[in-house]
Amino acid sequence: MRATLSLFWKLWVMLLLLTPLLDTCSCKAVAANKKRPKIALVLAGGGAKGLAHIGAIKVLEEAGIPIDMVVGNSMGSIVGGLYAIGYSPEEMDSVVRKTDWIQLLLDSPDYNDQPLLTTRKQSETYQLRMALDPERQFSKSGRSGIIRGRNIEALLERLTCTVPDSVDFNKLPLPFACNATEVVHGSIYEFHSGNLVKAMRASMAIPGVFTPVEQDTMLFVDGFVTNNFPVDLAKRMGADIIIGCDLVSTIPMTERYKNLLDLVTHMIDVSSTHKYIENIKKSNIYIDIDVTEYSAASFGSTDIDSLITRGERRAREMMPKIKALKKRLTQRYGELDQPNKQAQEQRHLLLAEIEKNGGYRPNRFQQEAIDTLLQEEATGKKENFFKQLRMNYLKSSLYLGGRFDNDEYASVHMEANMKITKKKRYAVSLYGRLGSRLKGGIDLNHYVMDNAKWGLSYTFSYADNRYYHHGKRMAEVTTQQQVTKGYFGQAWRYGRYSVGLKYVWTHFSDVLTKYALGSLTPEMDGKKERYLSYFLQGEFSTLDSRYYPTHGSRVNGSWEIITDNFYQYNNNKAVPIMMLSWMSAFSINERLSIFPHASGRVIFRPGKDLPFHLYNVVGGFMEGMKLEHQLTMAGIPMMELHTEAAVGSAGIGVQQRMGGRHYLVGAVNGGSRGSQLENFFSHNGFTWGTQFGYSYSSMAGPLTLFGYWSEQTKQFQVMLNIGYCF
After folding, report:
1. CB-neighbour burial class of residue 216 (10 A; exposed 0-12, middle 13-18, buried 19+)
2. 680 phi and psi angles, rounded to 5 deg
3. How high is the mean pLDDT of the chain?
4. Rounded mean pLDDT of 294-317?
């Protein structure tokens, strides 16, 4: 009996000792078997103000809060959509800071996003691009919006390259949904599948600002019209816990709406006030970010920085509630998984796979074209020539540009490009310029590859050119010129070249000269000049901007042989001419850049028989602006005519960015000239010059005010320019 009691007491003590351990194991087993509540992140819309969400997401990730799904509207749909496909808040922060929002919203082509150097240069030559098809300018509802959103869609296409063109949003790394307003019925439309870019673009189409998005028979505008803070949508997706980020203002109502965009937004938003209040009540953690003093268009660099900071600061103020949620979940469900971190890892794996496959994934527009071609081949259905020509016309665009300076005053130019046939790959380009320099031209091309073509072009120009010598105007000549070219050319992203033969016919009239300079004499009045030339032109450029470069280089060169009978000029040897220019840009810091540069032109067989319009010309805003062989040099704003066979200069420029788009710019150059290349470096031909001033990167192009001085002109001159140079 005593032995039995002793055994009983030993077993009882052992059970007491093992109970805490058994309880712990039991809790862990229960936690493992229990499903954690689904947490949804809901992001409100508000244009630029929605960038504040990025700061709030940073804090949620630092706190270790797992996000299972994302729902957003307008800018909230863009931030939320990117987060759902695996962008970290740090990556989103980098994207929004590097984006040129003015260029993006104006639909002007992005210089660095063009596939060929020719189209990259075009993007910083014209201010406007408009469709030739009226239906592409006006939607079914008439004049639908100021901004068509091409550049926004292009940016989103790049950012979502890891996502198929059509996808179930519930199968994204994080399930996602956004909403928009269906205009025809005035109802809420929820996007749960389809094209992610189209869904985000529809959700942010502010009425009157962005054109609506058309899909089937429906027309969509911004979801703020019906549901700007879609917590109820997250609930329908199965969310148990809602973390909502909202954008609020503390300014009195009478002072809040001082710009049209905010006023329109508020007037439409009034109709959905009841739903908005109900959705706030449904939020478990409500992060109300104060965006006072900011508007839907506050895309300036300092505004973006402040908005992201405000979002982060407000989320940190809510940290007690955030930590309490995490503690409650951890105690009940054990260590928390992190679906958002897994989404980011998955995106990086997909990016690596795309890079491995050559970095190519057709975007939606490319895929539509590919599908159309495959369908035509499968059915044998082909359009007739005239119908195809009309369709190509309707798909074409017209480019328009203008500028003003205190030398030529106002001038405008335009360009239209159109494919003639699809299969034989013919295209035509038309060009026109109005102002003191009139010009018109047509270019017919046959593409043998995507980047290679045979071309035949004709241009006509009429200009009153003023020539200077040592700073003084010495001649004014009215020039009519016709140029016919036959050539072969290729273009790549960073380079291009063309080689061919051209015929130039020039007629001089109204020749006013103060004195003779070489072949430029009063006897030139009424004279006609003709010549044939073989030419080779090439350009290589990695500059990140044509007007405000911070890194990259550009080399531009040409070789031309002047003849009048294919092998001689004026019964003498042909005249070879070489021209070369170079510039590189280096960033000292985020705001300061320098760019060393050099240029020169050599006529290898100079002579009195050479027409003066082939003489070396130095000065002006940009190389080749008024004359094809025009060089530039700091300190010389007008075209200085030189009879010397060799001219050149070298120097260094400096650029200091002040704020977002303001610049202080200066340069100093040293140059020389000689009657032959051998005596180019003689002391007698040396000169130097400098220029400095202010420049603003405006929506219409550079606005510059420069002061010029050179040892050659010995006078100070001021020049104003507004717009891209052409």
Report:
1. exposed
2. -60, -35
3. 80
4. 87
Please calculate the CA angle 152-153-158 and round it to the nearest 5 degrees.
100
Q: How confident is the model at residue 625 (pLDDT cuts 50, 70, 90)?
A: confident
Residue indicated by tokens 């050149």: 648
- What is the token pair recorded at 360? 């190519």
**Helix/strand/coil (H, E, C) string of 126-143?**
CCEEEECCHHHHCECCEC
- The answer on pLDDT for 191 being more than 70 is yes
| Beta pairing, strands 409-421 & 426-434 | antiparallel
Q: Are 661 and 698 in contact (CB under 8 A)?
A: yes
Question: Mean of the pLDDT values across residues 405-433?
Answer: 80
Q: Is the dihedral of CA 527, 530, 536, 540 positive or negative?
A: positive
CA distance 309 to 317: 12
Between 35 and 208, name the one with better pLDDT. Answer: 35
Distant-in-sequence, close-in-space partners of 671: CB < 8 Å, separation ≥ 6? 618, 633, 647, 648, 649, 650, 686, 687, 688, 689
CA distance 615 to 575: 12
DSSP letter string, 581-649 = EEEEEEESSSSEEEEEEEEEEEESS--TTS-GGGSEEE-SSSTTSSSTTEE--TT--S-EEE-SSEEEE
| pLDDT over 80 at 25, yes or no | no
SS3 688: strand
Q: What is the 3-state secondary structure (H, E, C) of 368-390?
A: HHHHHHHHHHHHCCCCCHHHHHH
Q: Please give the DSSP secondary-structure letter assigned to residue 434.
A: E
Answer whether 70's CB lies under 8 Å from 84's CB: yes
357 to 345, 353, 360: CA distances (angstroms): 19, 6, 7
Q: Are 307 and 51 in contact (CB under 8 A)?
A: yes
Instruction: Report how far residue 220's alpha carbon sits from residue 202's, in angstroms, rounded to the nearest whole number.
Output: 6
Model's pTM, two decimal places? 0.63
Reference 223, options 178, 267, 277; nearest CA is 178
Confidence (pLDDT) at 387: 55
First to last CA, the chain: 113
SS3 for 293?
A: coil
